[in-house]
Amino acid sequence: xxxxxxxxxxxxxxxxxxxxxxxxxxxxxxxxxxxxxxxxxxxxxxxxxxxxxxxxxxxxxxxxxxxxxxxxxxxxxxxxxxxxxxxxxxxxxxxxxxxxxxxxxxxxxxxxxxxxxxxxxxxxxxxxxxxxxxxxxxxxxxxxxxxxxxxxxxxxxxxxxxxxxxxxxxxxxxxxxxxxxxxxxxxxxxxxxxxxxxxxxxxxxxxxxxxxxxxxxxxxxxxxxxxxxxxxxxxxxxxxxxxxxxxxxxxxxxxxxxxxxxxxx
Length: 265
Ligand code: C2E
Ligand code: CA
Ligand code: CA
Hints:
This protein is of the alpha/beta class. It has helices at about 1-20, 65-70, 70-95, 110, 115-125, 140-145, 145-160, 175-180, 190-195, 200-215, 230-235, 255-260, and strands spanning about 25-35, 40-50, 100-105, 135-140, 165-170, 185-190, 220-225, 240-245.
């Protein structure tokens, strides 16, 4: 059994390696909509694997293995570079209003890597992207292991001019202390809370508390996985800043958004 697992792991590792070499990864982008104006304020870059013999493979099927084998470091670096290049292209369109923000996910392995800051600095420099348009999404669990070290890394990242978000907020320890201590700009309220926000008073109370606490700490709030108009209405009433979800957009290829982003915001 152990042998079998080791073999399977090696196979997956080889497959992911080949995918990297052959350029089989691609990014889809999911718009984030301003609750106040309805305009697209930003997008989140989400990786997919264009496997030669399979339908587009979602990250849920390979991010775990990529984490285990460490290949997430290379995949994540590729994704950041690709997203920065795309952000720079969209910025060059020069639509009215504030520039489009590009959110990119960082894995726990990346956050723990000693050269994370150097890698991101180099990517920003090489791609010529305005770092103010880049937001790095980090989960609570990725930073909770070693708070002290994490705060140092997050400070250095912000010194590069990028902004930071706590991803999936509410699913981990959700320490209020962490919210206060981590130098972040944005809190992403996990879909599991958004699901019940319009129908369950207790879920709504939690979301209301997260939003008001975030605002009191000067943080922007983004609701994830918004699927219904009732959720949109409730989140707007609660003062949520930005919404992301299938109600507005599914993640789509860059081409599908270029036209939209050329129009006035
Ligand atoms: P996440 O960062 O929480 O991303 C949000 C996920 O929710 C995405 O799944 C998105 O497609 C999905 N989603 C958005 N709106 C809705 C909705 O209204 N309803 C439902 N049911 N789902 C919605 P996706 O693209 O499959 O990505 C899954 C996870 O894989 C991400 O969760 C993130 O943790 C990870 N991931 C994706 N791309 C990257 C990457 O480049 N690097 C790293 N480290 N992780 C990534
Ligand atoms: Ca995310
Ligand atoms: Ca999330």
